[in-house]
Write a structure and sequence with these properties.
- The protein is mainly alpha-helical.
- It has 2 domains: 12-60, Arc Repressor Mutant, subunit A; 63-196, Tetracycline Repressor, domain 2, CATH 1.10.357.10.
- It contains 10 helices and no strands.
Length: 202
């Protein structure tokens, strides 16, 4: 899971941190150029100018390395959103600024997100991202009285996460046709109020 952080990782010395940073930088540059699926561990170590054996001292697979990169990227976003997330029952999802912060973050990391959300990271990676997002909403919903929920919390959490991922994927593929601050209220409106709030149905 993307939310797991090992004690070993926290205790890394500077040399180990530098090695991991080199591997992560190599991975990101390569997936931007070539996508993820075709990459090999040898490609990554060649780009990082490290021995293949060094890779295995830190990661078992290229997927594990990618998960680490994504977790760190998401953790940065969560830190930015933390004050907003604490402010309401949906983990910040009732506030336009939450979506604006998220979209600005995606725009700043557009190359990485475009590759991952475009399917080049594989179905397991996309599923992990959805589970990560849904997990934060589910945690917030868990603080509500059961009587306040009209649908099972796992349904609501995955609906919100799925909608966010789908629209963000389209937004990136379309070349970000709306700035983050313009896209944010549209995303919020659809998640909170659905299609009926956005079109006159007859």
């Amino acid at each position: 899971m993307l939310t797991q952080v090992s004690v070993e990782e926290v205790k890394l010395d500077r040399r180990q941190q530098r090695t991991r940073r080199m591997l992560r930088d190599a991975l990101i540059s390569l997936i931007v150029e070539r996508g993820f699926d075709s990459l090999t561990i040898q490609d990554i170590t060649d780009r990082a100018d490290l021995r293949r054996a060094t890779f295995y001292l830190h990661y078992a697979t290229k997927e594990e390395l990618l998960m680490t990169v994504l977790r760190e990227t998401f953790d940065e976003l969560v830190q930015q959103m933390e004050p907003l997330r604490q402010a309401d029952a949906l983990g910040g999802k009732t506030q336009v600024e939450t979506y604006a912060v998220m979209l600005r973050h995606v725009a700043e990391n557009a190359h990485l997100y475009s590759v991952i959300l475009g399917g080049q990271g594989g179905a397991a990676i996309a599923r992990s991202i959805r589970e990560y997002l849904a997990g934060h909403v589910l945690y917030a919903l868990g603080r509500l009285p059961p009587a306040d929920l009209k649908l099972p919390p796992e349904v609501l959490a995955n609906y919100i996460a799925g909608t966010e991922l789908s629209l963000i994927s389209w937004w990136l593929e379309a070349g970000q046709p709306y700035p983050p601050d313009a896209m944010a209220p549209m995303l919020q409106q659809l998640i909170l109020h659905g299609v009926q709030s956005s079109v006159a149905l007859r």
